[in-house]
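Quick one - inputs below.
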Amino acid sequence: MDAIKQKQDQEYQQYVYKKMPKSNLFKNCMLAFLVGGAICTVGQIVLNIGKNYYNMNQERAAIFTSIVMIFLGAVLTGIGVYDDIGKIGGAGSIVPITGFSNSIVSPAMEFKREGYVLGVGAKMFVVAGPVLVYGIGTSVLIGLIYHFFIK
Amino acid sequence: MEYVRAFIVGGLICVIGQILIDKTALTPARILVIFVTSGVILGALGIYEPLVEYAGAGATIPLPGFGNTLAKGVIKAVKSDGILGAFIGGVQAAAGGIAAAVFFGYLIALIFDPKTKR
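Output:
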């Protein structure tokens, strides 16, 4: 009996080892695709509302969309729903701008007990800070290169 | 069709992020930094804008879109204000998003507490 069970265990483990990494990556990618795509589709709806109902031009409507999506991401994080979306969607919830918003609200709530200046005020930039540093930093660099070498 | 294009392109950009998370040791914070920086560079090279025209929010909502906004803003400002524009343009173009993130981020963190583990 034991020998059979052992053999079965071994076979099962080999099976798991063979199957796990591959199918996980595929499943994670599918979920990221669906969740990320869904968030962007909501963004497209907001963009069209800005363009059609508030008569914004493309540029203004894009800014309006960013603001609304950041607001939605923040609220969903506050009520605890965004964490659930994140568990399903992985990168699909991290890469859209709602994920940027989530990365601000989440640590800010967590560190509230450390006070409103060094707790909320500082920790809200744990992830958003680096994003702004590298994003804005690169943009200044691009501006300088453009000014001196291209224009 | 507009919505389908936004869904597919936005979804695919997220898949790139998922592959990076699963296949490398990169943390989500690093992925976000890489995505914003690539967005600035692709935007400056004029590669990202066609994608925005094709996919709308599918290209502007993922973080490379934020980088593209910075790049577009800085190049426009350098054209009109010279070297001063290099320091004004990026943040100016992204001001709405940055201010909204600071304001709503703080406000929501003030109102809500983290959900206790179920």
